[in-house]
């Protein structure tokens, strides 16, 4: 089923739900995407599925490690012209919420 067809079906089902049922559905959706950070995406087959800045192949772990090595945000923005300040803020937010995952990726990539 295509995404468009799935969304159209969801819209039709939503129209028949009561307000309490819609509220319950919304709670489930929020719980499902609660750890998502805007501007960060993990795509299987792209950069090993590691979380990256959207529109780029720049992994979050790389930015975190560069920052640890004393690269400033200005340095990062100069080094990666496709990045915006908002992208860095999203990367830092992702790191705060997924510290263990990013730490593991740093170790794995440093060993490679």
Account of the protein in words:
With 112 residues, this protein is mainly alpha-helical. The chain folds into 2 domains: 31 residues; 72 residues, Winged helix-like DNA-binding domain superfamily/Winged helix DNA-binding domain (Arc Repressor Mutant, subunit A), CATH 1.10.10. It is 62% helix and 4% strand. The protein has 6 helices and 2 strands. A two-stranded antiparallel sheet has the order 1-2. The longest helix is centred in the first third of the chain and has 15 residues. The termini are far apart. The model has no long low-confidence stretch (mean pLDDT 90).
Key descriptive features of the protein:
about 110 residues; mainly alpha; 2 domains; two-stranded antiparallel sheet; 6 helices; about 60% helix
């Amino acid at each position: 089923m295509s995404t468009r067809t799935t969304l159209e079906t969801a819209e039709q089902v939503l129209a028949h739900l009561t307000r309490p049922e819609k509220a319950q559905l919304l709670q489930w959706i929020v719980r499902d995407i609660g750890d998502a950070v805007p501007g960060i995406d993990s795509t299987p087959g792209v950069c090993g599925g590691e979380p990256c800045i959207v529109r780029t192949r720049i992994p979050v772990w790389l930015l975190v490690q560069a920052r640890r090595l004393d690269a400033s945000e200005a340095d990062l923005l100069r080094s990666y012209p496709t990045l915006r300040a908002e992208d860095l803020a999203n990367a830092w937010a992702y790191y705060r919420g997924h510290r263990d995952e990013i730490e593991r990726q740093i170790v794995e990539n440093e060993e490679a």
